[in-house]
Structure formats: structure tokens, C-alpha cells
Amino acid sequence: MATGYAHYKFRRTLTRLPVRQSTDSQRELLRLVSPFLKFIAGEGRAIFTYLLCISIGALSWLNNIRQTIDAVPFYHHEVFDSLSHPYGFLAYKICLFVSWVIVYPIAGFLLVSMSISTYVVLQRAWKAKIIRPHVTHPDNCYGFRDVGSLNIALLSPYLLTYALMFTIIATLGLYESILLPLVGLTVVFLAMSYIVLMPAYKLLQEVKDTTFQELLRQSETIRAKNTDNTIEFTVARLCFVTATASPYSEKAKIVLVAFRSIPIITVAIKILERFHVLT
């Protein structure tokens, strides 16, 4: 469900970026986004990426079978889905097959594809000068607040995966074969939280600097008797002060900090526990 919501946000956000005031700009944006929407829909070479995700899930499933045939050497204790408990073994292997070979590859393919696509679309739209963030946009994020919400939506499934992994750790303990995926997921999660919107940050900072220079020029040349320009300058200056050159609103920033902190803290605690530092 979280991945489905992220997909909805992706399609909605990237086709509604603040563009320059011309019908050509809107068409250019749609032409730019269209190939990525088709890729995420599974067209063209997307099948190879999806097959790679399935292969990773299938290998993980086979590795779990190998570990639970004789569970004690891996987990240091008996587990409910080991071969010693044939019904638990069979039922849980079916459950894991559905999760790891069917569901997770779909979610993984979508999340990685949408994250990379978001970065590339923003980068290309910026260089092509298709999008036009502006300080007077009512969202106080130069028109990019939905982009920040999109990235939080993309990060949410990773956080849910953490919850699942730590439930497993709480049940079975921290064993070697889950430590590497846990650290890998942390690295990917943190990288995605920073890198995906890097073009947006650069673009918004550029717009902020340009707007500041324009306001500085107006403040030096404006005449008190020119009422219209004075009002326009005052509105632009107020918007410049209150707006933030970030795709995240103030509330979204708090959520993002929490998202980034939880994996780091929990993984650090578990690694320290694993090496008996906290015991």
C-alpha cells in the first residue's frame, strides 16, 4: 500500500511541476516524464530490471531454505520454520515465496525506478529550463512542496521494511545473514533521502539567489511615488522572507529528520549489541 501511494504521488507530482507560463513548457514536461512513466509501467527494458529484482528475491528465499533445513548453526537455537517442524517449514516457505519472490520485487522495482526517475526528471527539466520555481508560490516552497512530499512517500516503504526486519530480529535474534541486508538497507535509505532531490535543492538555491539579487536591484532603484512597483516589491520581499528554498515544508522537515534518525539509531544499537558492547 505504501508503494502504491508513492506511485500515485510520483505520477501526480512530476506531471504538475511549476513550469514556465507557456503551453510548450507543459508539453515539454510531459514529453520528458512520459518515458519514465512507461518504464515504471513495465514497458521496454524494464523487464530486465524487474527480473533482476525477482532473482534477488528468489536467491534470498533459497538461502532461507538452506538455513532452516538445519537452523541451529545459523540461528544458534531452534526456530519454528525449521525442517524439524515440517508444517511450520512448509507454511512459512510458501509465505516467504509470496513475499520475497512476488511482492517485494514489485515494490523494490517501483521504488528504485521512481527514485532514479525523480532525480533524472528534475535534473533534465532544470537544465532544459522547463520548470520555473518562484518565491511567490503559495506553498512557501517555491512550488516544490509536492516534490518533498513525494520523496517522503518514497521513503515510507523503506521504514516499514525496517519495522519488519526488527520484528524478525526481536523474534529470532540478530544473526549474520540479516545483518548485511540491514546495513545495506540503511545505506540505500539514507542515500535516497539525500540524493533523489539534490537537483531540486540546487535549483531552488539558484532561484533564491536570483530573486535576492533582483530584490536588491529593485530596492536601490524603486521610487516612492511608483505605488504599483512598491506594492509588488513589498509582496515579493515578504514572500522571500517567509518562503524556504527547500522542497520540504517545516512539518515535512521534522518527519524527514525522524525518518533519517530511526534507522541510524536502531542499526547502531543492534550492531553494538551484536558485538556485546551494550551488554
- Note poorly predicted spans: none
**What Rg, in angstroms, do the CA atoms define?**
24 Å
Order of helices and strands: HHHHHHHHHH
Judged by helices, strands and strand pairing, the structural class is mainly alpha
First-residue to last-residue Cα separation: 38 Å
What fraction strand?
under 5%
Q: What coarse outline follows from CA principal-axis ratios?
A: elongated
Helix content: over 70%
The pLDDT mean sits at 86
Count of DSSP E strands? Answer: 0
Query: How many domain regions?
Result: 1
Largest sheet: none
Total helices: the number is 10
Notes on the structure:
With 279 residues, this protein is mostly helical. The protein has one domain (2-274). The chain is 77% helix and 0% strand. It is built from ten helices and no strands. The protein has helices spanning 2-14, 23-40, 46-69, 72-75, 86-127, 145-172, 176-195, 198-221, 227-242, 250-274. Helix 6 packs parallel to helix 10 (250-274) and helix 7 packs antiparallel against helix 10. The protein is elongated, with a radius of gyration of 24 Å.
Structural features:
mainly alpha, 10 helices, 279 residues, 0% strand
Summarize the structure.
It is built from 10 helices and no strands. The protein has 279 residues and is mainly α.
